[in-house]
Amino acid sequence: MRTMLCTAQDGQSAVTASSLVGGLLAQVARQPEAPALVWREETVTYGALHTMARAAASRLRALGLVSDAPVGLVAHKSPRAIATILGCLMVGQRFVLPSTQLAHASLTALLEGAGCSRVLTPDQATAAAMPELGAVAVFEDHAPSDMDDADAEVPADYWFPAALGGAAEADCFLLTTSGSTGLPKVVPLSVGAVDAFTDWALDHFDIGPETTALNLAPLNFDLCLLDIWAVLKGGGRVVLVEQDLATNAAYLLRMLDAIPINIIQSVPMFYNLIVHDTHDTPRSFPAVKHAIFTGDSISRSTLAALPSLFPAARLHNIYGCTETNDSFLYEMDPARVDEPGPVPIGHPLPGVHALVLDETGAPVEGTGMGELVVSTPFQSRGYLDPARNAGKFFDRNDGGVTRAFFHTGDLVCRHPDGTLTLEGRKDFRVKVRGVLVNPQEVERIILGHDQVLEAAVLAIPDDTAGHLLHAFVHRKIGAKLNSLTLRQHCAAQLPRMAIPSRIDFVIAALPKTSTGKLDRRQLLRSCLEGESHDLSRVHQTVPA
Amino acid sequence: MTYHASIKQFLLDEFARDMRPEEIEDDFDLIGNNVIDSLGLLKIVAWLENRYGISIDVMDTVPENFNSVTAINAYLERVIPTKVA
């Protein structure tokens, strides 16, 4: 897997290409005409991607950005955005990669809190949409010859680990948690952690120059470490799906028809959509070798349809968190997809240590329930703001070795054969399209509106999205508030995924339990029984 | 002729049943405020195809064409021949 590659400009000895950029440069040197990215039906070769990445790296240097302070990289998915990330990696510039779905106030606070020196965005449209971010440097497609400072031009074979003799401890990607309200946490990943993960992925999924992978997740998702970054490191081809087309089954099927995709990784929603759309006209995509589902539990009905849809594919259920990256994997036997029960998350990946802790924090030995805590070779050492590590990251002596573990917040059950299944959350969070959202935090934001008297936000199970949020809101008398203005109120403080899909106004108090607390169970029952359209029936349950 | 009235009525019926058509601004950001998400987008596309007998190309199902009443109207004016409108 390792390739002897380039020599640094300052005369250091050649280094191995175990790094992400090193792997990519090896392919640039070997096959510059090989396809790296497919975007909007056009192909970007390794040579072209490298030229763009060098331009970005040179621009970073010309701007004098390379420093300890990270830059913010606000980017919708595009080849140029990927080249900008590569440029950062080439010159060793740490970068915060926030979701483009964040409310403006959250985005600003996140980037300021992370100490970002500048905010980069690869397109004018994004820059224009965030004028209040201040020092926005717009990355356009500058050729290296356009540089103001010729010395800033990055040599063709330049890359950061070579320049520094390999700095595995240095941070590169600074990912962010979903942050269903307030500030997302910044999760720094070191060069070493990213290299270890991409090496595992290359090996486990046989990724090489002949591989084509489908990328559905937005650029800021940790999923991209596998389906974009590991694939580019291996010299393969990544087919990028625009975020807004990632839920369009007709488009996705057209793409699968047009291009022989070998690896698909997605939250279950992708598979739900494809299975639903091909129900009446069965289809089959034999080029797919690995179908990976992650981020949420996949339903047995969707799973049962996968072997005929992808007859040559190995089916993998992967479990992981942004903080730790992937930690568990379960390979599903295609012959047993229709067995009942939840799909196990399987066993720890090589080098991963996992414990199941009971309520007292003691490890559960053998079968039983508890919270999953993990330590992985791919994980972050802790949040960028160490004050936020409390209750999440902790050191624990595990078999005589002190390791940094992470509280996943997921409750698991260990079965007699040692496999684990997910049983729910320790907190109230749910997954909406694979993204963790806390309905009670959304409720708090709605209650913050001065015309709202009471609010309840419920997570309603949904076949496609996993869960959808449904808000019941009781307005003050005479309030002018309507569902659109309430949405604007939410959008100013919440990422889009956390804005309720449905808002119903009620004209009487919300149901309460005997102790006077909001009776969520009663409301949920009304929703699930389809009574929510008839709000009067919800009201009839309110005690006089 | 414009399509504003029927677009608003559809949006309200589907996504904001508490409101009257005159309460929705033509330029209200439907996507940024999560009135319609990417699945909602498909609902709108299906409705437009049925109602106006048009076929909407998959590549046209991008937010720019559907993120406000104004945008949807402009899109319809582009794809529906004048004589039909």
Could you say how many structural domains of chain B there are in total?
A: 1
The CATH architecture of chain B can be given as Orthogonal Bundle
Mean pLDDT of chain B: 87
Structural class of chain A: alpha/beta
User: What is the CATH domain class of chain B?
Assistant: Mainly Alpha
Identify low-pLDDT runs of chain B: none
Mean pLDDT of chain A: 84
How large is the share of residues in beta strands of chain A? 25-35%
How much helix, percentage-wise, in residues of chain B?
40-55%
Number of extended strands of chain A: 25
- Oligomer state equals heterodimer
CATH architecture of the domain at 20-190 in chain A: 3-Layer(aba) Sandwich
Q: Could you say what the CATH topology of the domain at 20-190 in chain A is called?
A: Rossmann fold
Biggest interface found? A-B, 26 and 22 residues
Structural class of chain B: mainly alpha
Main sheet: strands, sense, barrel of chain B = none
Query: Mind describing the biggest β-sheet of chain A?
Result: 9 strands, mixed
Write structural notes for this entry.
The complex is a heterodimer of chains A (544) and B (85). With 544 residues, chain A is an alpha/beta fold. Chain A is 27% helix and 25% strand. Chain A is built from 15 helices and 25 strands. A nine-stranded mixed beta sheet of chain A has the order 2-1-10-9-11-12-13-14-15, with helices on both faces. Chain A has a six-stranded mixed beta sheet with strand order 6-5-3-4-7-8. In chain A, strands 16, 17, 18, 19 and 20 form a five-stranded antiparallel beta sheet that branches. In chain A, a hairpin with a 5-residue loop joins strand 19 (401-414) and strand 20 (420-425). In chain A, helix 2 crosses helix 3, helix 7 (191-204) crosses helix 8 (224-233) and helix 9 packs across helix 10. The radius of gyration of chain A is 24 Å and the shape is globular. Mean pLDDT of chain A is 84; it is low at 1-16, 141-150 and 532-544. Chain B is mainly alpha-helical and 85 residues long. Chain B has one domain: ACP-like (Non-ribosomal Peptide Synthetase Peptidyl Carrier Protein, Chain A). Helix content of chain B is 45%, strand content 0%. Chain B has helices spanning 4-15, 38-52, 69-79. Chain B starts with a helix and ends in a 6-residue tail after the last helix. The interface between A and B is medium-sized, with 26 and 22 residues.
